[in-house]
Design brief:
Layout (H helix, E strand, L loop, with lengths): L3 E6 L2 H7 L4 E5 L2 H21 L3 E6 L7 E4 L16 H4 L3 E4 L3 H9 L1 H4 L2 H6 L5 E6 L6 E5 L13 H4 L7 H15 L7 E3 L5 H12 L6 E6 H18 L5 E9 L2 E8 L15 E4 L2 E4 L6 H5 L6 H9 L1
Parallel strand pairs: 8-9
Antiparallel strand pairs: 1-2, 1-6, 3-4, 3-5, 6-7, 9-11, 10-11, 12-13
Length: about 325
């Protein structure tokens, strides 16, 4: 009968810092072996956080991309009923391997020998859970305690196609960012929440985004509009500005509505007129048609009441 082995891998430097070593957990019942391994890995991670070898930073709330340091992994948010850490939840947080000040100083001071300090610290390895079976050669990594992009996530629609897709920190960060933008009532300059299926209105929105420079714009498309709006969006890009494309960024549920969020960044900075000769820009209320009262500053300066966004533009 096949025996499943789960291994909690602890790199040598973390063994020295924590006094806990790589351990195998084997059993004919794979679930028993897995639970034992997760229990041990939970103990290791709690010890690492307590000794500040690893720092865990989570988002302040559902509407913020700001982070706060988590010092107690016994909190029910991060711990399951059996006492094990909820690793799926932890991997949605920012994870920082801090080691200690002597190791960090060594990496920085010896960059002329070892190269980039971060790469040197990364080379020490990460806590990980791996698995293998007695009847098969080799082992597979189940997960590492680190922030890393998942293979294939650069495809904007990957999450839609995978029902069991598990969010990582970078996915969660995108969701937090767009929620923060969505709820910022002072920032209609940078965002558009689509609430119409009128082609002419959508064309105005498209052109106003295209005529807004220096900053990333976010287009929130409700699921019920998504099927046709993306096709229309592609047509408008081909018609008006082939180089300034919209990219799928993330999808998020807000107040019971599922939104697909697209971002737009100008590659070329040129004003685009509608086919009827009208020019649309954006201000703090959203779409604005240029007329005889429009000034130079209306075109060039950011038209928003959001002071934080103004500060970002000034830095850029």
């Amino acid at each position: 009968m096949s025996t499943t082995t789960y291994t909690v891998e602890i790199p040598p430097i973390h063994y020295l810092l924590l006094g806990m070593e790589t351990t195998n957990f084997s059993n004919e019942n794979s679930e028993i072996a897995k639970e034992e391994a997760l229990s041990y890995l939970s103990k290791v991670l709690k010890e690492a956080v307590q000794k500040e070898v690893i720092e865990i930073w989570d988002f302040e709330n559902d509407h913020s991309s700001n982070l706060e340091k988590i010092t107690n992994l016994e909190n029910s948010i991060y711990t399951q009923e059996n006492g094990n850490i909820d690793f799926e939840r932890i991997l949605q947080c920012q994870i920082r391997y801090t080691f200690n000040k002597y190791i960090r100083k060594n990496a920085v001071f010896n960059q002329h020998i070892h190269g980039n300090a971060k790469e040197k610290l990364d080379s020490y390895g990460f806590l990980a859970l791996t698995g293998s079976q007695s009847e098969r050669h080799g082992k597979s990594t189940i997960f590492k305690i680190k922030n890393e992009e998942k293979g294939g996530t650069r495809n904007g629609f990957a999450r839609r196609k995978k029902e069991n897709y598990q969010l990582n920190y970078f996915d969660k960060l995108k969701i937090q960012e767009v929620r923060e933008i969505f709820y910022n009532e002072e920032n209609n300059y940078q965002k558009v929440i689509l609430n119409t299926d009128s082609f002419l209105e959508f064309e105005k929105i498209f052109l106003s985004i295209n005529n807004t420079f220096f900053i990333t714009k976010y287009l929130f498309v409700p699921k019920n509009y998504e099927k046709y709006s993306t096709e229309i969006l592609d047509l408008l890009v081909q018609t008006y500005s082939n180089e300034n494309k919209f990219e799928f960024y993330t999808d998020v549920e807000i107040e019971g509505v599922h939104f697909y969020v697209y971002t737009h960044e100008n590659i070329s900075c040129s004003l685009t007129y509608s086919k009827t000769g009208k020019l649309y820009i954006r201000d703090f209320n959203g779409v604005k048609e240029v007329d005889e009262h429009t000034t130079f500053s209306d075109i060039i300066e950011i038209q928003t009441n959001d002071q934080e966004l103004k500060n970002i533009i000034e830095i850029i």
